[in-house]
Every structure is written in structure tokens, then in C-alpha cells.
Design a protein that fits this description.
The structure is a homodimer. Chain A is an alpha/beta fold. Helices cover 37% and strands 20% of the residues of chain A. In chain A, helix 11 packs across helix 17, helix 14 runs parallel beside helix 15 and helix 19 crosses helix 20. The relative contact order of chain A is 0.07.
Chain lengths: 709, 709
């Protein structure tokens, strides 16, 4: 991935003219500061944009005190970026003029395109073609624009600034929804969080969310990315953006709402119909360590904690609390969020017990309210948690004690010192002392009133850290097989053979026309075997006694071969008999289902799940973009809720997870190599034997586009 | 339940002396306002407690300016309540003196009891016995006490008041943890929520959480109950308290943390081992419509919304938004929280579309930012949502628009009027206008910055409303059967017979010693039947061909009878043959598991789940206290994640859910009637046939206490 991503990263900088312009034209500029065409000018004048600001208005000599230009052609030069705030029908000619003038970036406020009707959609396609023709990067149409307060550039008509302009900070907001993007900005502002770069993409005729995230991933203005998406329309830049952000250690917290528009896309195959909703997007986000926020509040909690830029690759949580009850609550929350809380070393526990006899020093470390009567103990406990516990993250719960007249100042002083002595840790404070929050933050603390919210934010830092650490390891190359798909949809036998060649083993079986061949086949496969009559005219073999189980030696094979032929002649005298199928007898297997389908945005996506009801009723499945290695395949398998069934639950032997992971990875490589003609693959059931005995596909269907049904 | 609950309610008022005393003695009173024995006096002096306040201190004439008494005996009268703040070893003699003086309520601050060690536990038992001997209601020991600001009574040594004393309000906090209870109080205070009654129960030697909740359920001081529990130790008062609160329409929001101490209790039976953790407590809370909060923040969100006392019995949510993105986000949150968002009537949608052409009026009703250019439209939209939509709850999302200089005042004015015109609705505002919150609250709004938190709170009001509505319906009496348990653990056959008599049908089968009897049995059962050889010496019947399926008429029964006897003689000549078992042949059944176990706190609890892996791996089960009616049983069944398997998933016929619900309810009645000797029942598998065809237990185990294994 590293090799391909570099040029993509360079591509992201092509948004510089859009986000960091030195000259700005406003087409449709208004003298009224409150009108859509007036707001960008008013904001930039108020904030002191240092570049050139050129209003274009054919009916006025000046706009808001600035020299106005009658037309694009009349502009003194090509602006770095042009803001287009004209009626829909004038947008395309305006864009064309701008292109001819040499402008290479535009922000289109105007609505009346794809969001409206089919005619609008057609207009938007024309618009995008004009932009592409001129090599213009275009934000919108129907977008609220963007702002980058680091250079005081305000290419937006949002009304969000009545409460104030952005404060300093390193949070960037990338949003498909203008209203929601500025909502997050405004909520951040209320919390004292600086988000000086906000980019909203609107209809995404040209610049899409991935471009914006990618730009932020390489821009020094932004260290933490908040993204809001309703649907991902484009994969190449999106994937490259996530990859770049990960490599540059910039965390992304994303809110992805609604049913993906992909959900409804032709549910051609079984696997695709299971995918539904936004499972594929979810799988992609997980792959790159993007944390999905469930609420705006959670998004900002995580972004806030991330401003400390401490992302533990292996997160552990130490908890220091004055309340045993809160300690239990925090432990519950940590378990839920998947953050480990290893116990303190025994020796340290003993020492703390000698300091406060009734303390509970395991972890959570409950120092009890005793310490409020003997304040220097606070340092002792905090230091021990940091030094002896060695936790990557430390959550300190003081409730209203922190606000106390007597305890408060001493607590703050001691905690400041201990924190300063271990600056590499993520120090989080949970307290009920609203008027102390700014002071603690000044000391370097992350502060949350609610301990559960604190735990969620801490967990997210660990997810980021683990993803960043993975990015630093050279990715295992997944070798792609050579795949030659047949012309038409292959039969089951051909499908199995194709997959087996690629490393997805099928149940070993041989069609044999005489009993000698049957014995040879059985010896090759290994006993016991199953014998089945082979005839295109006998569909229900077992009804005529056409299946023999537990055939354990050569004599039995010979005997069985004769028996089956006799039964067939007797019960179905007219049937064409081709011989006997000799197959490995599989016993005690766990039935899994593997699959692949082509996502319209992200390409081939592989799936694994437990067979039958697990998939269809419980949706207990895991998805990943193809290809991926066996280690990743095993992570997918282990993430299944039903994984215990493979891991020795109910007294079963452990299943051969390694073989299953190998087959799943091989399937993903096959799908990646097969090219766009591959529509879907279903391997169901995939029979997984006990450890060391492998796994075998008992059925396989490969569907091709245009393969017909 | 109604009949029994009345006396329990009277019982709760016996805490009046504890929570609403007219005279208070403080044993171990200190002249130092900051010391544990000094704080209650200092607080009551500062707040102006109107009753008598009697410090007891043998070494001083006055305490904090009040006349001190040398001993309990020297008190001018028996105090309504005595606060005991003396060293552990003096607690019992002090309590005894108080009892002899005529005191009937005490609060024991002193620690050094069950929280310490076995000796402390023994001391605590003695203490409880002394209290009971004198008829004293005792809070603690090892508790932080309680306060009731409505009468300025402060029987607590909490240090929480440095930030301020309680403000007016109707929230009561009942907590097993003192530190956590006051944390919630203090967090509420920071949010402007009044919680003037806080009661913490400490070691619960006598008064337990249920008593406290029960007192709040009947006390006018409290309208909304916030409870915090680590484990429920006592069921009678707890259940009566939940029932009373529900009947008095007082919502309870509870935080229950940690693994219940019951989880570890002897996992004697299969069913009990599945229960684990706190599933039983959870089932009890659900039964009474108690909402479980996951975080302190959520607890206070719900308590805050509940202060409006609008609890829709059938909750529906209408959403009015200026942001389409937020609308999608809110819809996602509502689906997750289980709140229905039915669409607006078509005619209303059309009218709104005629007002704002590009609005999305379905629900969420997205009025778009257009309305900010034509402010009177706000009323039109809000009124339509309330009147035409008829929603019980209305969430209005305005983001930072509400703070705008131009839009803000008009928005507030219009929304105030519309809200006032529909005062029976739950009106919730989501906006980013911190300085406007108090004004909106004054207008009657519930305000949340985060729309997801708003949705969760709205959902909780519906849960309360539905529970309150259920309480108003006369509970269906579940008739209890007469159950005569055998002396020893019964055999499978006896267990099945006992259960069948109680209404839990078993697979019909008859042991027949001759072929005439077999034919009669088959005719009675109905064809097809299964024939099985009956012999105590033949364990694996099918291995000797001892099972015949699909026996469809009398001749076949006769013939089969002879065949089985002949095979038995041939393959197992020494075996004792008792005849043939004729059983109904069950085909196409869904396998369920039913069970009962005796919870040490809540008594017999019934369980239902889908068979096999569903239960053991996925824990997809539902629990309920016994007995319950068939309607409740059906609710349990329908709450299973795997319910689609019974409801026609994967092309199956629908299963006979009504029969299953009947059997489950009958099982619960059997368990309730069986008395404490019943340890557990496992009915597994319970075979559920297609609709109209019933369900049949294929196996049943009844375990008795002392019944041996």
C-alpha cells in the first residue's frame, strides 16, 4: 500500500488552492453582508484575510467597500479560488469563464442540481465535465463551502459565526452535510475546542469526502480529523486518504449515518444481500483504525482527547478513584469498550495497603476518602499507579472532591507534579469541578465530568494507537494467483476446481468409472470414504440407496461399487450411469460460510460467518476488502460472536482455524485477481475439521457479470 | 399484586422517622464543624433545621453552640432519629441505649463492620439483631447517611456541600454507595437539577435499597427516583418498592454496576449457570419498567426529562430539523433506542411542501434553512408536526441557529407559542445556544445539546409510560396448579408427567407390552408414530435397528412391533425386553429450551431460549420471575434475537408460538406453586411444531434441593 499511496498523497495537495488561496474571487458578490453572496466577503473583511479579495458584480462599482469587477473576464488575474454564488442556470457558463481565465479551484454555493431532480442531475454531470475539462477542483455544488481560519479564508455562507469565529486548535472537520459540519464546529466552539478548518462537500460533483480527508491528512493545520458521511461514493481517494492519515498518525473520528445507498444496490448474490446497510464501509473504517462515533458528543469527546496526541499502541488503563462505586462503574465501562485494566503489581498493592489499610489497590485503585484527611497520600497513590502500574492511560476519579476548598488546591498541585513526571501517559481527570476544568486543562489534563465518557475516549486513543502501529509494520504482501475466469458462469465442479487451485480446498472426490479406479481414488483420499452413484438422471441419490457411508477399506470399496451399480440398475433402469463418486467422508466439522461480492464502491469484499442461522438471523459475519493475508483473515474469524463454536465450546474439539484463515485469505486473493467480471462467490458450507485436519468446501458458486441465470 | 402491595406501601412509611425527623440526636457530636461528628450539626445549623437538635458528648457542655448531653440516657426525650458517629466497638451499646430510650430510627456512620472482615460481619449481625429487637429502622452501618432538604434535615457527613446545598427539585437519589450517591447529587447540582433527598444505604444491615426506593415511591418530596446498586440483597421490599413506584407513576432510573454477587451463587442447574451476572436483576427491572442507565450522564439526562412528568404510554417521535444530516442521525438513534417515528400524514406533507418547495416533510421533517429567511414558517412547521403528526414526543433540532441574533428571538417566541398550544406533548429542544437553555427551560422545554442524548431520554419516557399503563390494567391472575413434588429427584418420565399435568405437554408416548396395545396407543396419538424397542439393557436402540420411523397405520404398527422384538432377540438375546414405546412422530419442529431456577434473592425465575448454540454461545435467552401469564411469556419469546426462527425465517412455516407461550407460562406457575424445595427445571428440547400443532417437551429434568445426584 505504501508505494501506491505516495502519489495519491501528492494529489491531495491539489486542494491547496481551494483551502489556502492567496486570491479569492466572489462571483455573485453582494453588498449586503447578510446575503449569501455577501457573507464570505463580510467574514474575510472582519477576520482580515491577507490575500486579494475580488468581488464580481456587474451592477456595482464597489461591494462592501471593495472594488467590484463586472465579470470574470474583467478580473485582474486568475484567482486561486472562485466562490460561485449565482443562480443555477448561470453556474456552468461562469465556471467555463473561470476555467478560461485560468482559475483552478471553485466553491459552488448554488443549489438546483442533483439534490433536486433528474434534470438537475444531468446539469450537475455537465458541470462536473466542464470542471474536469479545465482541470478545476470544484467543491459543491449545493455546498456551504469551507473556511480555514489559519489564513482567515472564509469561502462559506454559514451563519455559524454569530457566536464567534474559530478559536485556535488543530481539529479539522470534513462533512458531507453543511448544516451538520457547522453544527459540529459550533458544538466544539462551545466546549472550547478549536476547529479552524471546516470543509463541507455538498453534492460532491468533483471533490468528495476522501479528497478532503486526504488534504487534512497532509496539511499541518490539522492534527485530528472529524468526518461526517452519509455515504461514500468513491473509493480510491477515500482509501488513500485513510491510509495517509494513518501513516501520518492523524486520528479520524467519523460519524456515518443512515443506510448506505449501496445497501440497496442489486443484491445479486447471497453474500451481497447479507452485507446490507453499511457493513462494507464499517469494514473499511475498521481496517484503517477509524473510530466511529455514535453521537456528536462522542465525536467531540474523542477529538478532544486526541488533541494530546498520545496514542498508545497497546492501551492499558489504570484507574485511581476516591469512590469504590465509581471504580466498579469504570471497570464495567472499560470492559464494554475493550480496554484492558491489568492489576497493579502485588508489591505495589501491599505498599499502598500499608499506607491506607482499607484501600483497594488492585485496579481500580480505590484510595478511599481517607486521603482527603491525609493529602500527601494523593501523590503516593498517583505515582504508584503511573510508575508501578505502568499504565498507558490513567483515569483519575475525584468527583466533587476536586472542587473542595480544602482538598481541591492540594489535589491539583500534587496531580500536576505527578502528571509532569510521566508526560508520555494519557492523563484523564473525571471530576465535578466545572470552574477548575480550564486550570486542569492548562496543566495538561484531559477532563471529563462523566467517567464513562472518559473511558470511551481513552479506548479510542488505543484504537488509533494500534492502527498507527500496524501502519508502521511492512504490510504482508498477499500474492495474487493467476485467475482465468471461464466465459460463462461455471458449474459447481468447475467453481470448486478453480478455487482449489487458488488455495481454497474442496472436499476431495473423484469420479470413477470402474471399481479399480474407485479403490485407487479411495486410497489416495484416505479412509473412510463416501460412495455416491454418479448419474445425470438420478437427482435424489439417497432415495434409491445410492449413497454408502463409512466405507473403510479396498474390499468395501469394490463391494460398494457393485452394490451401487446394481441398485441403480434396479431402481432406475433407464438412467445413464457414469460410475461412482468417491469422496472424503467429513465428520465432526463446523459449517462455515465464506463469500465474496463486488461492492460498487470498494470492489471485491470477502465475508466469513458461521453457517446457516448464524448468518441469516443473527448477521454474525465479518467483512474485509480483498485481498488480505491469513493473519487478517484470522482476526475476522475471531471477531465473530459465534467464534467459541470453533474454539472448543460445548466440549467440541477446537476447529482448524488456521486452515480456515488460509482458505479465506486465498479466497480474497482469488477475488482480487479475478477482475471486474467476478460478481460474487459463495462457498457454503465450508466444512472445518478439528485442528490439523484442514477445511473443505462442500459447495461453491461463482457468479460472473453477464454470466446469466 | 395490587392487593399485596398495599400493606408493603404502609411499611415504607416506617422510614418517616429516619427521613423526616422532628428531633435529631447526634451521638459522638463534635464541636469541630469539619469532623464527621460535627458536620451534620453544622449543616443543620447553616440550613436552619426547624426540629430539635441534641448533640451527645460526655466531655462538653455545648457543641457548636448547642446544649450538649452527656449520654443517650440524659437526652430530654427519645429523638425521632439518632445519628451514631462513635467508634465501632461502641455502636452496639449506643444502639441498645437508644432503643431503651424509645428511639426508633438511627443512622450509623461508623465503619468497621461487614466491609472489613468476618469478625466485622459477625458484629454487624449482632448490631442488626439489636436493632430488630428494639424495632429500630437502621441506616448503615458504614454509610454516608442521608439528607432531606425539604425539612433541612442533614443526617450525613458528606463533604459535597462545598459547592452548595441542594436546590429545589423533585429528584430523589437512593444509593448503595455513599460516594457515588453524592457524586450524582453533585453532578445534578452542576446541571441545575434539584435533588434535595439523597439516601445512601452503606452496609444495609437493616434498611436496604428497596426500603429507600419504596419510601421515595410514596413520599411527596420525590417524583423521580435515581437509584444506584451494586447488588440487590433482598427481594420482597425491593419488588414492592418497584411496584409502588410504578403505580404512583414515579419513574426509576437505575444504575446497576458490577457482577451481581448472585452470579457466583452455586450454579447448580444448567439454567442457573446460563443466568450468570445480573440477568435476573435485569429481568426484574424490565418487568417494572425501570430504565437502566449506562452512564451517570444518561441517568441525569433521563431524570431531567422525567421532571416534566410526561410519560407517553405509546411513544411516537416527531422530529423537526433545519439539517437533513441531523435528521438522519436522529432517525438512526431513534431506531437504536426503539422509538417509533411514523411518517406525517400525506396531506400535511403536501401542505408543507407547498410552503417550502425543497423541504423533506416525511419525518424527520426537514424544514431546511429556508425558514431562517421566512421566519413565520417556523410556526407553520412546528404546529403541523404537533397537530397533523400527533406525535407524543417532539424533538426540534436547531443547532446554532437558535443562538443567532436574527433567528434566535423569533424562533424562541414561535416555539413557545406552539409548545403552549400542545402542553400534553413532550417537547425537546436540541440546540447549540448555552446561554438560551435556561430561557427555553423556563418556557417548558427539555433542552439537550446533543440530539442523540435527547433521543435516549425521550425513549426512556416511553418505557416509563408503557410500564405505568401496564400497571393500570388489572394484572391477569396466573392460577397456580396444585403441585406435589416427590420425595426424591424424579425420573425423566415422572418429571414429564408432573409437568404435563401442569400444562407443559410432553411428546405423547405409551409403553406397550403387546401389539394390540401398540395399535391402540398409535390410534390415540395419531399417525405417523415412531416405534422404539423398550429395554433397560439396550441403550443405543438405533444400532440394532430398534427404532422405526414413519409408521402410518395399524398393520404397520403390528408388523413393526414384531420386527422390533425379533431384532432385539437376534442382536441382544440376553436383554430384558419390556415391549415397545409408541411415540408421536415430531417433524419440522423448532428446538427451544425452557428452564426454571431458584434465584437466592428473587425466587423461581423462568427462562426461554432457542436450543443449543443459541443459548450457550450467544446467551440469547429471556428471564422472568415466576409466575407470569401467557401474554408475558409471549413477550419474552418475541424478545429473543433468534425469534425470526419461530416466525417463518428461511421459508419455514411459522411455529406455534401461542402453544409455546402457554407452556412457558404453565411452567412458571408450576415453579411458583412447587415451593422452595424445587431447585431447578430444564425442559430441553421443547419441540415447537408449526402453528396450530402445539409444542412438546422431549426431555425434562426436575432437580430438588437435597434430591441428590
Amino acid at each position: 500500500m505504501t508505494a501506491e499511496a505516495a502519489p495519491a498523497a501528492a494529489g491531495f495537495a491539489s486542494l491547496d488552492a481551494l483551502v489556502r488561496p492567496r486570491s479569492v474571487a466572489v462571483i455573485g458578490a453582494s453588498d449586503e453582508p447578510a446575503r449569501i453572496g455577501g457573507r464570505p466577503i463580510a467574514y474575510m473583511k472582519e477576520r482580515g484575510f491577507a490575500g486579494d479579495l475580488w468581488p464580481v458584480n456587474p451592477r456595482r462599482a464597489t461591494v462592501q467597500g471593495l472594488t467590484a469587477y463586472a465579470s470574470v473576464e474583467a478580473l485582474p488575474a486568475a484567482p486561486d479560488v472562485a466562490i460561485i454564488a449565482v443562480p443555477a442556470e448561470q453556474v456552468i457558463p461562469t465556471l467555463d469563464s473561470l476555467g478560461r481565465k485560468g482559475c483552478r479551484a471553485v466553491i459552488v454555493f448554488s443549489a438546483g442540481f442533483a439534490e433536486m431532480d433528474a434534470a438537475g442531475e444531468a446539469q450537475q454531470e455537465k458541470l462536473a465535465a466542464v470542471a474536469r475539462g479545465h482541470g478545476i477542483r470544484m467543491l459543491g455544488p449545493n455546498c456551504l463551502g469551507l473556511f480555514n481560519d489559519s489564513i482567515r479564508f472564509y469561502g462559506t455562507f454559514t451563519a455559524s459565526f454569530e457566536k464567534g469565529f474559530p478559536i485556535a486548535g488543530r481539529i479539522g472537520i470534513a462533512s458531507q452535510s453543511g448544516a451538520y459540519g457547522t453544527h459540529v464546529f459550533s458544538a466544539a466552539l462551545d466546549r472550547g475546542l478549536g476547529a479552524p478548518v471546516v470543509i463541507t462537500t455538498g453534492n460532491e460533483a468533483e471533490v468528495a469526502l476522501g479528497d478532503v480527508i486526504g488534504w487534512m491528512a497532509q496539511a499541518p493545520e490539522v492534527e485530528v480529523i472529524c468526518a461526517y458521511a452519509e455515504g461514500i461514493r468513491e473509493s480510491t481517494q477515500f482509501i488513500a486518504a485513510l491510509d495517509l492519515a494513518r501513516r501520518n498518525r492523524k486520528p479520524i473520528v467519523m460519524m456515518k449515518v443512515g443506510r448506505s445507498q449501496l445497501g440497496g444496490a442489486a443484491a445479486k448474490s447471497h453474500t451481497a444481500s447479507i452485507a446490507g446497510d453499511d457493513t462494507v464501509t464499517q469494514a473499511v473504517l475498521e481496517e484503517f483504525g477509524v473510530v466511529r462515533a455514535r453521537t456528536t458528543e462522542e465525536m467531540l469527546d474523542i477529538a478532544y482527547a486526541a488533541t494530546k496526541r498520545i496514542y498508545p499502541a497497546r492501551n492499558t488503563l489504570g484507574v485511581l478513584t476516591v469512590s469504590g462505586g465509581a471504580g466498579v462503574l469504570i471497570s464495567d465501562a472499560a470492559e464494554q469498550a475493550g480496554v484492558a485494566m491489568p492489576p497493579m503489581p502485588e508489591a505495589a498493592q501491599e505498599r499502598l495497603r500499608s499506607l491506607v489499610p482499607f484501600c483497594a489497590p488492585r485496579n481500580p485503585v480505590d484510595c478511599t476518602a481517607q486521603v482527603t484527611n491525609n493529602l500527601p497520600l494523593i501523590s503516593e497513590f498517583a505515582e504508584s499507579v503511573a510508575r508501578d502500574g505502568g499504565y498507558a492511560s490513567i483515569l483519575s476519579f475525584w468527583s466533587q472532591t476536586a472542587a473542595g476548598r480544602s482538598v481541591g488546591p492540594s489535589l491539583q498541585e500534587q496531580m500536576r507534579k505527578v502528571r509532569a513526571a510521566f508526560p508520555d501517559r494519557l492523563w484523564v481527570m473525571s471530576m465535578l469541578a466545572p470552574n477548575k476544568v480550564r486550570e486542569y486543562e492548562g496543566d495538561g489534563w484531559v477532563c471529563f465530568e462523566d467517567p464513562s465518557r472518559a473511558v470511551n475516549a481513552i479506548a479510542a486513543m488505543g484504537v488509533f494507537g494500534a492502527a498507527f502501529a500496524r501502519a508502521e509494520q511492512p504490510a504482508a504482501e498477499v500474492p495474487l494467483p493467476r485467475v482465468a475466469l471461464p466465459e460463462a458462469t461455471p458449474s459447481e465442479a468447475v467453481a470448486k476446481a478453480l478455487l482449489a487451485e487458488a488455495g481454497v480446498p474442496a472436499v476431495p472426490e473423484h469420479a470413477c468409472s470402474d471399481s479399480e479406479a474407485a479403490v485407487m481414488a479411495a486410497e489416495k483420499i484416505g479412509y473412510p470414504v463416501v460412495l455416491k452413484i454418479l448419474s445425470p438422471d438420478i437427482l435424489h441419490k439417497s432415495e434409491i440407496g445410492g449413497v454408502l457411508l463409512d466405507v473403510t477399506n479396498a474390499d468395501a470399496v469394490k463391494h460398494g461399487f457393485a452394490t451401487l451399480l446394481e441398485r441403480a440398475r434396479h431402481h432406475a433402469p433407464a438412467a445413464r450411469i457414469e460410475g461412482v463418486l468417491v469422496a472424503k467422508q467429513i465428520k465432526g466439522a463446523v459449517e462455515m460460510a465464506l463469500g465474496v461480492f463486488r461492492d460498487p464502491v470498494f470492489g471485491p469484499v470477502a465475508m466469513v460467518g458461521l453457517g446457516g442461522i448464524f448468518i441469516e438471523v443473527l448477521k454474525d459475519v465479518s467483512f474485509r476488502r480483498c485481498p488480505f493475508d491469513a493473519a487478517e483473515a484470522e482476526r475476522m474469524i475471531r471477531s465473530l460472536k459465534g467464534f467459541p463454536l470453533l474454539d472448543g465450546a460445548r466440549g467440541r474439539p477446537k476447529a482448524d482455524v488456521a486452515a480456515l484463515a488460509g482458505a479465506l485469505s486465498a479466497l480474497s486473493a482469488f477475488a482480487a485477481a479475478a477482475g471486474p467480471r467476478l460478481a460474487s462467490i459463495d462457498v457454503n458450507p465450508m466444512l472445518v475439521l478439528p485442528e490439523g485436519q484442514g477445511c473443505y468446501a462442500a459447495d461453491a458458486v461463482i457468479e460472473l457479470d453477464g454470466g446469466g441465470h
